[in-house]
Specification:
InterPro entries: GreA/GreB_C_sf, Tscrpt_elong_fac_GreA/B_C, Tscrpt_elong_fac_GreA/B_fam. GO terms for molecular function: translation elongation factor activity. This is GreA/GreB family elongation factor. The chain has three helices and five strands. The protein is of the alpha+beta class and about 160 residues long. The chain has two domains: about 10-75; about 90-150, Chitinase A, domain 3 (Roll). The chain has a five-stranded mixed sheet. β4 and β5 (about 140-150) form a beta hairpin. The chain is elongated. It starts with 9 loop residues before the first helix and ends in a 9-residue tail after the last strand.
């Protein structure tokens, strides 16, 4: 990543927007509990009040991080189609002949197997490459390679 605003893919945007909505809901609940205590009682009450205040600070920081990232993504515009970057959808062919279409993202949803993060070995290896390039990356089983087939919405058509 260059330090410039990076684009974000549709799936990653939806995940961040959902997380932002959830965090705002949680923040409203936590903030409501702070206002429910007109006076702080014993040390246990004070400790609980401090814990909720810390939780509120944590939520505020994460809300600001996500809001900033979504704003930067709007500034960056769409994901590149000439070379792999954050937000790109890329189809790769592995040495065993299997082909997968993946999205390079900053963050991955736990259950989404089509996302690779830009700082993962494969995601990092793909960044900056173009169709036809072979990328090399590390795996727990040792070095591996993949060929960039296409950048865009899905696999390239099979050639005859």
């Amino acid at each position: 990543m260059t330090g410039d605003p990076e684009p974000i893919g549709a799936q990653a945007r939806r995940a961040l927007e959902q997380e932002l909505a959830d965090l705002r809901d949680e923040r409203r609940l936590v903030a409501g509990t702070l206002h429910d205590s007109p006076s702080v009682g014993d040390q246990a009450d004070q400790a609980d009040e401090l814990r909720r205040a810390d939780q509120l600070d944590r939520l505020d920081r994460r809300i600001e991080d996500i809001t900033t990232r979504l704003r930067q993504a709007r500034t960056a515009g769409p994901a590149p189609t000439d070379q792999v970057g954050v937000g790109s959808t890329v189809t790769v062919r592995f040495p065993d002949g299997s082909v997968e279409t993946l999205q390079v993202a900053e963050v991955a949803e736990a259950l989404d197997q089509t996302l690779v993060t830009a700082d993962s070995p494969l995601g990092h290896a793909l960044l900056g490459h173009r169709p036809g390039d072979t990328v090399r990356y590390g795996t727990p089983d040792g070095p591996a390679t993949a060929v960039v087939e296409s950048i865009g919405e899905g696999p390239a058509p099979a050639s005859s």
